[in-house]
Amino acid sequence: MTTDRAPRRSALSGASAIRPAPHQEQQPTKAPEPQQQGAAPRQQKAATAAKQQKVGFYQHPDDAARMRGAFRQTNGKEGDRSLSDFIQKAIMAEVERREQLYNNGQPFEAVLPGEGPIGRPEGS
Fold it and tell me: What is the pTM of this model?
C-alpha cells in the first residue's frame, strides 16, 4: 500500500502562550466603561462578566499559609465562595485604592497578557 500524502502540520505549530498564532486574529478590546452612580459593583460585574481568566503569582509560603488561614476562618462571615473569590476581592480593593490615589478615581488603561514588562525588574 503506497501513500503519497504529505505529512500533516499541527494547527498548534508556531503558537505561543504570549502571542496568538499567525493564523489567529486577535479580538479588539473594549475600554472599561465608567461606573454608573448608585449601581452596585457586583451587579455591574455580572452584567459585563466574561469568562474568568486564571492568573498566577509567586508568594512566600508563610504569607500563603496566613492567607489561607484568613480565608478559612472568615469565609462564612464575609461571603467568600472560594479562595479565588477572596483573592479577587483583596486585589480589586488594592486596585481601587491605587486608582483613587494615582488616577483621580478613574480605571487605569487595561493591559492585556503579554503587553506588560517581562523578566526581572530593573536593579534586581
Answer: 0.54
